[in-house]
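quick one
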Amino acid sequence: MALKLQLLAAAVVAVAASCRPGLADPAVGALPGLPVAGLAIGFYNESCPGVEDLVLAEMRAIVEKDRTLGPALLRFMFHDCLVRGCDASIMLESRSNKGEQDSDASYGLRGYDEIEQIKAKVEAACPLTVSCADIIILAARDAVYLSNGPRYAVETGRRDGTVSAKFDADNDLPPPFSNIVDLKTYFSVKGLGWKDLVVLSGSHTIGSAQCSTFASSRLYNFSGKGVQDPSLDKAYAACLREACEPGLEDDATAVALDPTSPYEFDLSYYRRVRGDKGLLLSDQALMDDRWTRGYVERMAAAASPDEFFADYAAAMTNMGRLEVLTGDSGEIRETCAAYVD
Ligand code: HEM
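structure w/ protoporphyrin IX containing FE:
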């Protein structure tokens, strides 16, 4: 396992190095959303006062050991929150392979062991007090911070769900080849607007995707026509073709989503998308809508990341409020993983 992770890290770096590159908003996209009863900044101030420091210390240790886990744990929050809400249902396991983890949409998702590791530390300090759902949110926040992104205040008070279904993940997570209409629909059914979409897509300023995720749709079989995506920058495409061989369906080679600065939470993702160098179709699709394109262009030209960072904090708060269980709903488990069948 350790060797596999080392290889992954090496592959990301190698590909990253070889790929170095050279309006007014409508109300529907406005941030932030409405507060949710039961969630509060500092919810554990009395019941577990050190929890946020504990999570940060553990995240620091995790990322120091393997920096690819920072992005992985940021992605983890997206996969938890979009499916049945932010309730740690992604941690539940199914013996019959019918849980969220078994969905194609969870392909390549990492961080299960690390969430469990953080939970164990938190349990030792404050037994049966802090939910796994909150730990996922705190870990994502710290992943951003440890990549030199903002350290925004996080609401806590979520409780854990007990249901996990593959078909929910199949239905609720947008595939990487989604177009802009599909992306906006996936987000809007969850109550997230175009601005949440374009801001949260900025998470792809760190981390990587495996060739099997994008090579077919972008390099070798765009729209099922056996050609390269015509909207992809030609020099970048040539570079990607070197990394991802044709015809390898399970190619796990990791390619940086933002090779300019794969572990730096910055604006270069938007500069790349503006320059037709977004890695996933869903990244490039942000240029196909006047509002999301306007935002990409503004961030690509911005001298400072301040506006993006403020928007990001608001959008992560919105996503962190999705379908949460609070008060007497749900449960606080001793471990995050549990079998549902
Ligand atoms: C807008 C729709 C989105 C789509 C279609 C999408 C899709 C993907 C895919 C396919 C990967 C690569 C998986 C792999 O090959 O291993 C990925 C990676 C990633 N995604 Fe997204 N994503 C979206 C939104 C988000 C959001 C909202 C976040 C976080 C808030 C996020 C954070 C990440 C991160 C950090 C990575 C890198 C993971 C790693 O290095 O292990 N994504 N995403």
